[in-house]
Each structure stands twice: as structure tokens, then as C-alpha cells.
Write a structure and sequence with these properties.
Elements (H helix, E strand, L loop, with lengths): L19 H17 L7 H15 L5 H12 L12 H12 L6 H19 L9 H4 L7 H20 L5 H28 L5 H13 L2 H14 L5 H5 L1 H20 L11 H8 L2 H10 L7 H6 L3 H11 L3 H25 L3 H7 L1 H12 L4 H7 L4 H17 L2 H6 L5 H22 L5 H19 L6 H8 L6 H53 L11 H4 L4 H20 L14 H15 L1
Helix pairs in contact: 2-3, 3-17, 5-10, 5-12, 5-14, 7-9, 7-26, 8-9, 8-10, 8-14, 10-25, 10-26, 12-13, 12-21, 16-17, 18-19, 19-25, 19-26, 20-21, 21-24, 23-24, 23-25, 23-26, 25-26, 26-28
Length: 604
């Protein structure tokens, strides 16, 4: 359970022409008020009647008194001390929760660990070690444009499959098999794909096997962050959901270790290229661990509530929260919010894909999540190093990326997702340009020193920002009724650009040189900085259901707030002025201008 920020939001909406404007606006306001807190305006008697009706309907009458306490707490979470219905023991539980947000059950952390192992599988499927060996064996190792494109096509095949096909399996897999089932099926496909990769004997065969591997990447990358976000308490949701990228980075690092271990393995009679085959096949090991344990963790309670399986959802919450009171607060509040979501969705009677585009709230979430969504060995080899040094350089990159993602565990829910991106993105541009400039130096050692410095510093800032934030952010911004489709879209966009990058990056290096390729990507980080500034509102401290309010605000209002931010930062942190700025959900451009004029006169 989390602290709930005080919110009195006014929302932007599409313009409605004619006599329907007032009624549409009034209807939107009512919906927004309900989503703000469906329990907020009820008297104690009304709340009790709601609890009685809900427990009878869901078959949870044996915990009616507990659910009534939970409803009173959820009505105003910051003021539970005033509730006479709570015992001193109840209040101690809630006080401890506020003071120690990471004091959670072993089951919750075990579930997050299982999700982390799924991410390790993802990271180990990167073939930046194997691509130093198999191209020569398959006859695509020359510097020609044809071979360079084929090398990129083989490496990027899983991302192509994920972007155009497998990510879109996320919705049916989750709908019919649940979060755990989707993870099991996709991880099993990843296991089989890794084995298949190691058994190929031509680049065409390897390309097909890596396309199949993409079936194990797309749905898993969309489902695991969503699963983590749905089971996590709001105050630490970012820290738990970001484990996907943290352990993906660890998987990349582990894959490089695998490459170093197997690089000198000699061929055996009848087996050519045993070293790179073992590199590709080794990624199946963490997949076995995930498949073996996924059904021993509880299913997402939010998914179960959405399916009307309230009793199982209650059992899941009891396993995921420290005390029955905490489980009851999350159970009742989440259930009531989901009921409102389902009622609103039922009124629209439109396909979920149409809902994604036609509903302004969903459209803003889609824009924000799409905004925020390797070949490292080749880079080091281009810097004039041998294979071992290239792999060691890649290992260092992966290790730094993983280690420096750990600070985000403690800052993503305090500083916020948006703040981490805005702080780290300029440094990513800077260090990409530094790494690129290293290729202009004369001498292998000088090149290696500057390229390594730039890449490692890039990894140090990528780890706590652009690495973990996008998947965490995308997993939480969509309402339940379109969450699978929304996350599928966000991950498909990610894998599409991964595919384009992996396909053309070798060619960029051949045509532009490594320096030009790095300058190009460095410039795009600045573009992303402005997009995040204007279109990605902060999501920390909100429950998943309360984020409906955040994304109901108009896009123009969000953009104005973002564009006004640099001036505020300059006055506060550079000029050291005592300035105050309201949060986005209280922001009105005209009021902000008047406040700035008053502050200017006071300072004068």
C-alpha cells in the first residue's frame, strides 16, 4: 500500500461540438472522479453497504469485517490514524508499511526473482560474441555490403519476429493462459530456439531459427514487466518492475562470459564451429529455471480480478502482502477501480485495438510509452583489438550496465521515472560522442582507451536511466482493459528499432565509420530528451488505477508544463532562487504565469 498524493485534477478532453458538449464533459468529470477514488465521496454507511454487496457478490463474506476496515483505509490512506475502527495493531502495520516500503513477503521477492531470470534469458540471446565466429563459417564474413546486411539480418531476426508477430501474441496468451502461462509458453519457445540456434549449418537456417527465437522474446518482454508492476505495492512498483532491464543487462554480461568460456573450444569430428554453437545454446539454461518455477508463484491478482476470479485473487494478495489487512486494502481498492474501468469500457463497446487509438487517455499513454522504448564486441574489434580483448571489452560494458542499474532500484520511486530519463539522456549523448571521437585517434591503444572510456561511461548512465525506465514506465501507464495490447505495442516499437539498429549498424560502421555511427545515435538522445520533457508525465506514487487520472489530462497541458520546466530548474538550481512550482496535476498555464510574476516582484 502506498501513500496517496493529494489530487484534485482537472482534465483536458476532446472538443465536443453542439448540444452534447456539456453532457459529454459532465460525464467525463464523473468518470474522472470515480477513477480518482471510487470510495472517496461515500459516507461510512454507504461504504459498509458497498462492502456487504461486494463480499456477497464475490463470495468473500468470511472476511467482510476485514474488508470494511480495508475500505475505510483505502478511502483516505494518508489519514488512517483517525479511524476508530482500527486497532492499535492495525495502525502499527500501516505505520510500518509507510516507514519500510521494502519490507515485503518472500513470495513477492521470489516472484520478482523468477521474472528476473526470464530477463536473463533475454539478455543471453544477444549474439555479440558468436557473431565474431559464425560469419566466416557461413560465408558472410566479408566487408561487402551484401555480407554486412546478411550479418545484420541474422543477428536482428528475433527482433524482427518480435516487432511484426510475436509481441502481438501477448494479448491472446495473457487472455487465455494468464501472466504465468504467457511467461511459461514464451520461455519454453526461447529454450527451444536457443537449442535450435546451435544446430544450424547455414546462415539461412540460423536466420529461421532466430526468427523462432523471437517468439520467445516478444510476449515475455511485454508480460514480465506487466506482471511485476501488477503485483508490486505502488511505493516500490518502479523498483520491482525495473528488474526486467536490470537482469537483461546481467544476461548480456553473462552471455559475454559464456563467449569467453567457449571461444577456444576446438571443433569435434563432424562438428564445425562448436565454440559459437555452445555460446548460442547456453542461453537455454536460465530458461529451464524459469519454466520450472513459474507455476509455483501466485498469479497476478489484478488479472484474476479482471477475470472475475476474486477468491483466487484474494489468495494471491495474501501471499504477496505481509498481513491480511494490507492484502485486503489492495484487494478491495483494486477491485473497485477495475469495476469502474470495466463499466466505462463496456459503455464504449469497441475493440481493444480501437480503444487504444480512439480514447484520448489511452492515446496519451500510447504516445508516452512509445517514446520511452549491441554489437559491442564488433565495436571493440573495430578499435583494433583481437577477439579476446573485444570480448573482454564487451564483458566490461555489460558488467557496468548491470551494476549501475542498481542505483535506479533506490531512486526510481523517489526521484521518479521521468526525472531519471531527463537527467541521464544528455550524458548518453555526450559519452556517445566521446566514444565516437576515439576512432579519430592514431594508435590502437589510444583508440581503445578513449572508446572504452566513452562506452563505459555511457553504460554507467544508461544503467540507471534509459535502461530500466522504459519497460517499467510502459508496464504501468495503460488501464487493465487494454494493458496487454498497450504493452505489446510498446515492446513491438522497441524491438522494431532494435531490428533496424541491428540490421543497419554494421553497414553504418562500414559506410560512416564507427565515429559517424556513434555521433548519429548520440544526437537522437537529445531528440528523446525533448519528447520525454513534453509528453511523458511522472507516474511515481500513483496506483495503477489512479494513473487513469494522470493520462486524462490534455496532451497540450502536459507539453506546456514540460516546456516550462527548464526555466524553473534554471531559477532554482542555477540562480538558487526560492521558487515554488505546483505538480502537473495542479498545473494551469495562466496561474503559473501569475505566480511567476508575483515571485519576481517579491524577489525584486
Amino acid at each position: 500500500m502506498s501513500e496517496k498524493p493529494k489530487r484534485q485534477l482537472s482534465h483536458g478532453s476532446d472538443t465536443v461540438v453542439g448540444s452534447n458538449a456539456d453532457s459529454a464533459t459532465e460525464k467525463q468529470k464523473k468518470q474522472d472522479a470515480l477513477m480518482s477514488n471510487p470510495l472517496g465521496n461515500k459516507s461510512e454507511e454507504e461504504l459498509y453497504r458497498d462492502v456487504v454487496e461486494w463480499t456477497e457478490r464475490t463470495g468473500l463474506t468470511d472476511v467482510r469485517d476485514l474488508m470494511f476496515k480495508a475500505a475505510l483505509v483505502a478511502q483516505d490512506r494518508d489519514n488512517f490514524e483517525r479511524l476508530s475502527q482500527l486497532t492499535e495493531e492495525d495502525k502499527d502495520i500501516l505505520r510500518h508499511e509507510k516507514a519500510h516500503p521494502f519490507a515485503q513477503t518472500k513470495t513477492l521477492y521470489w516472484t520478482v526473482f523468477m521474472c528476473s531470470m526470464a530477463a536473463v534469458v533475454q539478455g543471453m540471446t544477444v549474439i555479440n560474441g558468436a557473431n565474431l565466429f559464425y560469419p566466416q563459417q557461413f560465408g558472410i564474413g566479408s566487408d561487402s555490403t551484401r555480407d554486412t546486411l546478411l550479418l545484420g539480418l541474422v543477428a536482428s531476426a528475433p527482433y524482427l519476429c518480435s516487432a511484426v508477430f510475436s509481441c502481438w501474441l501477448t494479448y491472446p496468451l495473457n487472455k487465455f493462459f494468464g501472466r504465468r502461462g504467457a511467461i511459461f509458453i514464451s520461455t519454453l519457445c526461447a529454450f527451444l530456439g536457443c537449442i535450435w540456434n546451435g544446430l544450424t549449418n547455414s546462415w539461412e537456417h540460423l536466420f529461421v531459427s532466430r526468427l523462432f527465437l523471437g517468439i520467445g522474446i516478444g510476449p515475455k518482454s511485454a508480460t514480465v514487466p506487466t506482471f511485476s508492476a501488477e503485483i508490486a505495492p505502488a511505493r516500490i512498483r518502479g523498483a520491482l518492475a525495473m528488474q526486467w532491464q536490470t537482469w537483461t543487462a546481467f544476461g548480456i554480461c553473462l552471455g559475454t562470459v559464456s563467449s569467453l568460456i567457449f571461444k577456444d573450444v576446438p571443433d569435434k569430428p563432424g562438428i564445425t564451429g562448436l565454440n559459437w554453437r555452445l555460446m548460442l545454446g547456453s542461453a537455454c539454461l536460465p530458461a529451464i529455471l524459469v519454466c520450472a518455477q513459474v507455476y509455483f508463484v501466485p498469479e497476478s491478482p489484478r488479472w484474476l480480478i479482471g477475470k472475475g476470479r476474486h477468491h483466487k485473487a484474494w489468495q494471491s494478495f495474501l501471499k504477496l502482502r505481509r498481513t491480511p489487512l494490507q492484502a485486503a486494502v489492495d484487494m478491495y481498492y483494486t477491485s473497485k477501480c477495475i469495476e469502474i474501468e470495466q463499466e466505462i469500457a463496456a459503455e464504449r463497446t469497441r475493440n481493444v485495438v480501437v480503444e487504444m487509438i480512439s480514447v484520448p487517455r489511452n492515446r496519451r499513454a500510447m504516445l508516452a510509452s512509445c517514446i520511452v522504448m549491441y554489437y559491442s564486441s564488433t565495436i571493440f574489434e573495430n578499435a583494433g583489438q583481437d577477439t579476446t580483448t573485444a570480448l573482454l571489452g564487451s564483458f566490461g560494458y555489460g558488467l557496468i550496465n548491470w551494476v549501475f542499474s542498481l542505483p535506479a532500484f533506490f531512486t526510481i520511486d523517489s526521484f521518479g521515472r521521468r526525472s531519471l530519463l531527463l537527467f541521464t539522456l544528455p550524458f548518453l549523448s555526450l559519452f556517445m560522442w566521446i566514444a565516437g571521437s576515439g576512432f579519430w585517434l592514431q594508435g590502437a591503444q589510444q583508440q581503445l582507451a578513449m572508446v572504452t572510456t566513452g562506452i563505459y561511461l555511457f553504460a554507467a548512465f544508461y544503467g540507471p536511466g534509459a535502461g530500466p525506465v522504459p519497460f517499467s514506465y510502459s508496464a504501468e501507464v495503460y488501464p487493465l482493459n487494454v494493458r496487454e495490447v498497450g504493452m505489446a505495442l510498446a515492446t513491438a516499437v522497441t524491438w522494431l528499432f532494435n531490428f533496424i539498429n541491428a540490421l543497419v549498424f554494421p553497414l553504418q560502421i562500414r559506410k560512416w565509420g564507427s565515429a559517424g555511427a556513434f555521433y548519429w545515435f548520440g544526437a537522437w538522445n537529445f531528440v528523446l530528451w525533448f519528447l520525454v520533457l513534453m509528453f511523458c508525465p511522472e507516474t511515481k506514487a500513483f496506483t495503477l488505477e489512479e494513473l487513469d487520472e494522470v493520462f486524462s489530462m490534455s496532451t497540450l497541458r502536459q507539453a506546456r508544463y514540460g516546456l516550462a520546466s527548464p526555466a524553473y530548474w534554471f531559477r532554482k538550481y542555477i540562480l538558487r532562487q526560492k521558487v515554488h512550482r505546483v505538480a502537473l496535476h495542479h498545473y494551469h498555464p495562466s496561474e503559473e504565469k501569475d505566480r511567476a510574476q508575483v515571485e519576481h516582484r517579491e524577489l525584486a
